[in-house]
Inverse folding.
């Protein structure tokens, strides 16, 4: 029997994050001679610091299989906590917990930052004589893992599902908008992705032939609120209505403070979402009709919704999880499992590895060449890139008594072997 | 060949409104001796006033069949315009258009108000010697058609689908909230239904055993923003997190105005949605943790989303449309087709008729007895009522090239026979 395994998730969830988790876990189970007990860090690295290690080997195989159609991070939890390089005590604690539980393999499901963390933990462990193999598993709805040349990874698991969310949701919104105008001529929809526009860009998949009055405002557009208002007003004049997809990262400026009737400041303008600012602004100054603008803000739903999940994304997320285990066995420490697209007309991918360091030091931007000259649309090259990722079929989600049957893991934890963690004690000691 | 048919929709759309439309149209097609050409009022009664009559008999039968999985009102359009009794010229114009196009049957898909309108049009037509049969087809996501005793109708087509939307969406939200706390301990979700709480109530279907920290704030709760804040804070103290479903009609009070840095009023407090007010208030005063509240506002998506549609609702919407045609043939003028629940443990309905007048003069409220004593939940009696409406299976929505294949009707209109409509000209006589 080999060393034990620790798998953890970091950052915002995706609909397919548990599919990667399942891939890691089932691939480990397939190699009982190489791997011991498979643990999950409960709520990510925070659970490791607290020595809360959920025993996945003790779970029923049926529940593990159900992870594939269980969205978001409810199964093992995620965290926003980041290990920072100056917080040496955090890193030391992780290594100590790994040593105490004989962890030899660390699979970290996350974005660029997590790849950096995984790398640093493995280096520190090795410095201290602990033979730890750390392998990263990419994950993000934002599609911002990797580099801008798409050489480290073609797309991140999670993105295909949120792209499908926007493709299909905007199709329904078009039925609403076409049917309900002229009284509701404008429908504004706020998309996630604070810094990068892959998510709002995917709305174009709803209408690749550009038959609908759809305008897309990405954070990279170079436009401001007045430009947006002008573009929407022009569209309403021309077509009588407009569908507006706006990124939560679109710059709407500072709009002051909300005061009560006594003049007390209630909230700052950050109390308004981009969607609210745009809807209010259109209703105040922008609409050349008597109808009103409406706004939808699906918010976190786009990252925890299994119904829209792409079957392509689900499968790739699973395979990339399995690939990480294969890398750990064959190649050892210091890689991220990755998805690369094969050249040619037919969509095909291969699973490969890239050094964690390269990912950690990379940054992806939405390609400037994929933004249309109008700045309110994407190009067909983007559509050729994104279209295969949303797949061609519905996910098969089990229903029991009318509800989705999600995985339910038993709260079986490894016995704690270390004193409770306080950074102070580590610094002192 | 019988007289021609006019079908129209009114008010906000639902995911299954076109299923009722298909039911009406196909039932008319089944009786070619009794019915002539089937027209749709383009954008509802507004299209009738403008003499814009879409020819449904000229459409391909395949597109008519696809109406069942085409959400919202994009196919024939709806309107917010209401015929008011003092606007006699509007009613007269409708009768004139009906006479000009030999319309003998009028099917009106809508809520209580529409049943009133249909009744008045039929009465005026008959006064003027035009033998018009008007039959109503119920429709609303709010489930507010009929009376509070559920004797006129058990539930309105459209409600089962939005109930399923909330049941399944809140399931995903629970995975997010459980997995992402403690950094995001509270997730607020705004539900439609300004005056009546059937939609937020359906969130309980996500968790009938009450295992999750779900709080439901209906417009009828009798609570205010401070009560809401207290209840959420208590839940966060007790469970570490909370899922908050709040009606758009929940009274959050008047919160002042938004001023820019020069003190100019930018927007009134109506610029904030209930979801924004609640999220801001929780973040300012209400959370006993360091984590933040987040908010989602799906907005119109809940009424134009086919993916969540209930198969029970889709089938009932279709059948109630067919029933309206049967009523027109067998019973004549002045009824609404209705859905009544059979007594017994097993869910079964029968389709019947009720006089339009009775519906027009009725009002439904959410039963007080279905609100839990805590005021932030519903009772099991409500669950027994609502559970069958969401069905037990996924809708079968055709995909073509990765997108939903919605019905596409050709823009074939009846030739106009009357001068353009202006109320002034009608008033002048």
């Amino acid at each position: 029997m080999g060393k034990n395994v620790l798998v953890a998730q970091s950052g915002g969830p995706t609909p397919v994050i548990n599919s990667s988790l399942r891939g890691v876990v089932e691939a480990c189970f397939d190699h009982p001679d190489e791997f011991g007990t498979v643990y999950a860090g409960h709520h990510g690295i925070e659970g490791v610091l607290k020595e809360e290690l959920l025993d996945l080997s003790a779970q029923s195989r049926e529940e593990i299989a159900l992870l594939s159609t269980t969205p978001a991070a409810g199964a093992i939890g995620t965290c926003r906590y980041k290990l920072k390089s100056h917080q040496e005590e955090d890193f030391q604690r992780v290594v100590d917990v790994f040593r105490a539980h004989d962890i030899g393999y660390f699979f970290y499901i996350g974005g660029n930052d997590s790849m950096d963390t995984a790398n640093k933990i493995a280096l520190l462990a090795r410095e201290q004589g602990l033979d730890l193999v750390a392998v990263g598993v990419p994950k993000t709805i934002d599609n911002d893992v990797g580099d801008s040349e798409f050489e480290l990874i073609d797309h991140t698991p999670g993105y295909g599902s949120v792209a499908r969310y926007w493709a299909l949701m905007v199709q329904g919104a078009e039925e609403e908008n076409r049917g309900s105008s002229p009284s509701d001529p404008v429908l504004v929809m706020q998309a996630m992705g604070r810094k990068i526009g892959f998510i709002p860009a995917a709305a174009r998949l709803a209408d690749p032939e550009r038959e609908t009055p759809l305008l897309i405002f990405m954070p990279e557009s170079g436009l401001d609120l007045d430009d947006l208002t002008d573009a929407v007003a022009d569209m309403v004049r021309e077509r009588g209505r407009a569908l507006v997809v706006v990124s939560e990262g679109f710059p709407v400026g500072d709009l002051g403070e909300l005061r009560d009737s006594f003049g007390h400041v209630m909230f700052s303008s950050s109390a308004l979402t981009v969607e609210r600012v745009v809807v209010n602004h259109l209703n105040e100054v922008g609409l050349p009709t008597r109808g009103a603008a409406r706004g939808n803000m699906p918010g976190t739903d786009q990252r925890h919704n299994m119904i829209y999940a792409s079957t392509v994304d689900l499968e790739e997320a699973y395979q990339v999880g399995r690939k990480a285990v294969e890398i750990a066995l064959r190649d050892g420490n210091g890689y991220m499992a990755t998805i690369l697209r094969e050249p040619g007309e037919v969509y095909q991918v291969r699973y490969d590895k890239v050094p964690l360091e390269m990912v950690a030091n990379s940054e992806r931007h939405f390609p400037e060449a994929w933004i249309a000259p109008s700045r309110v649309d994407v190009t067909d090259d983007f559509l050729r890139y994104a279209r295969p990722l949303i797949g061609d079929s519905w996910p098969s989600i089990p229903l029991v008594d009318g509800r989705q049957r999600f995985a339910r893991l038993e709260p079986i934890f490894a016995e704690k072997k270390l004193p409770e963690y306080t950074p102070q004690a580590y610094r002192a000691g």
Summary: The CA atoms of residues 232 and 242 of chain B lie 7 Å apart. The longest helix of chain B spans residues 159-180. Chain B touches chain A through 79 residues (CB under 8 Å).
